[in-house]
Each structure stands twice: as structure tokens, then as C-alpha cells.
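Here is a protein:
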Amino acid sequence: EVQLVESGGGLVQAGGSLRLSCEASGFPFEDYAIGWFRQAPGKEREGVSCISSIRISGSRDSTYYADSVKGRFTISRDNAKNTVYLQMNSLKPEDTAVYYCRVVYGAYRYWGQGTQVTVSS
């Protein structure tokens, strides 16, 4: 029932930009936090960014960024489109990985199929 579909990956030169999308269905999207993870060759899957389901009045969206991407990546969501975005700027070769989005809904963690991001030197 729950489905997450990533898109937007590709090949880009160092310093370039990509915008990833995660389109969700099968659950009340607006009520749940969504996270982006990535897995590079030879490394464990790691958390990249997360956006809360809650917007605090008078403040920025509640977001999380790994130190390695802070200042370069921006997460956002469009609840009307059931979509979370990850804008990736100033990409580095170290960002090369398969990127996944994830939601924890009920008793389960649901993952998308992943989208490949390759950053060339």
C-alpha cells in the first residue's frame, strides 16, 4: 500500500546541482516525517536529511541535515503533491551514492527503490 518513488538522480560534474524528488502514496503523507538516506560503495547507509511533519508558527521548517551536506543540500516538502524534495548544490564526488527516501509508518519502515547520483571529478 505504501509506496515511495524517488527520481531526479543522474550524472553531474563536481560543483553542479541536482534536485531529487520522492513521491509518496498509501499513507497520510502530511502527518509524517520523511527522510533522505544514501548509500555509497563500501559504506553503510547513512541519514542525509529529514523534514518534520510539523511546521512551527514563526519559525523555519523542522529539518535535519548531516554535517557533510549542511549548507549545500536543502530539503523541502509539498504536501499538496505528496512529494519531498532534496535540492543538492555544490555537489562533490563524495556525494556519489544511491539516494533513498524513507517513512516510518505504523510498525514499518518503508523505502523507495533509490535513485543513483554520480558526481564526477
Q: What stands out?
A: Residues 18 and 56 are 28 Å apart (CA to CA). The chain has no helices and eleven strands. The mean pLDDT is 94.
